[in-house]
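Worked Example 4.2. Consider the chain below.
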Amino acid sequence: MDYIEDRIFANVNFQVNRLNKGEYDNCVFTSCDFSDTDLSEMIFNECRFIDCNLSLSRLTGTAFRDVSFKGCKMFGLHFENCNDFGLSFSFDRCLLNSSSFYRKKIKKTLFKDSNLQEVDFGECDLTGAAFENCDFKNAVFDTTIIDKADFRTSFNYSIDPERNRIRRAKFSFPGVSGLLDKYDIEIESGS
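Applying the procedure from the previous section yields the following structure tokens:
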């Protein structure tokens, strides 16, 4: 397995030029296309992905340790298949629609200005996670731990407080009405 450190990869189509299996430390990937590629068993430590397309990439055993994703297209990714050891990442302006974090422990993860439509957070531990201005339309929260998570600026979430742990989580109006969706009631703002 190759060891690659402090490299910058820009405008590379990894569908054509495959990324070598290896460990990547402190590397930057800018405007690269990883869509529908196999990133299984690769290790990314303190790497940055900027304006990349990772949609439908395979992530079996992939290690993301202190990795940031900015402006990335990441449709249909199965983060539940990632290596759990040291798993930590952040997302800024990313499109994560139809991705899955099922059963992952991703405490204190930052999701900022990201689209999380139809994302599966089932049985996930999101303790202390921050969701800044994120769209959760049709996202799944089922027996999810969201203690101390911050949803104040996010919207379109539907979270059942009876099926999820939400102690000391932060919400704001009108988004907080997403905690009452299962009751099929109408909520009006006071005037």
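The beta strands are 2-5, 8-10, 22-25, 28-30, 43-45, 48-50, 63-70, 88-92, 110-112, 130-132. The chain has a mean pLDDT of 94. Compare this with Example 4.1 before moving on.
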